[in-house]
Amino acid sequence: MKVLPLSALSLLLVAASCQTFSSAWTQTFDLDPKAVRFAESTPGSHSVEAVIVRNRTDQPLWFQTRIEPEGRAFDAHLSTCARPLPIGDECAVFVTFSPLEVGDYREQLCVRAAAAESCVPLLGIARAERR
Fold first, then answer.
1. Which of 18, 51, 86, 105 has an alpha carbon within 20 to 30 A of 43's alpha carbon?
2. Mean pLDDT of 106-123
């Protein structure tokens, strides 16, 4: 058995960890747009915007979505998304802004797939009706 000097062993460990780190950051999907700003609205109204998810892998993509923080003024629906999303395909995640009170709302739509996660900031503003 050949014994490696400590510096060679350290170099091998660094190289192995860099390989693990780089493979963990392989992009599996894209989100478009990178941020969503809803038109100014009034409490009780609803508006919808789409965020496109594109599969960049060489296999079907299983993914989950969530809104953070949950349950305030935004909701997400996967109405055009096949499960799993086929290779090279894309689909729309529809985000609905439904404010109940006047205010500025900042949340995010997060998509998680294959140990990768990406989030899109969501901004909505609700103002009182002008009379």
1. 51
2. 93
What are the structural domains of the chain?
Answer: 26-126 (2.60.40.10)
pTM, whole model, 2 decimals? 0.75
Across-strand partners of 49? 95
Query: Structure tokens of 92?
Result: 């729309």
Contacts with 82 (C-beta within 8 Å, 6 or more apart), sequence order: 89, 91
Distances, alpha carbon 79 to alpha carbons 4, 8, 42, 96, in Å: 57, 54, 25, 12
Beta strands in the chain (DSSP E): 29-32, 36-37, 47-55, 64-68, 74-77, 90-97, 103-113, 116-126
Phi, then psi, of 91 in degrees rounded to 5: -150, 170
Residue type, 11: L
In tens, the pLDDT along 39-98 reads 999 999 999 999 999 999 999 999 999 999 876 899 998 877 888 999 999 999 999 999
Which has the higher per-residue pLDDT, 49 or 13?
Answer: 49
The pairing of beta strand 64-68 with beta strand 103-113: antiparallel
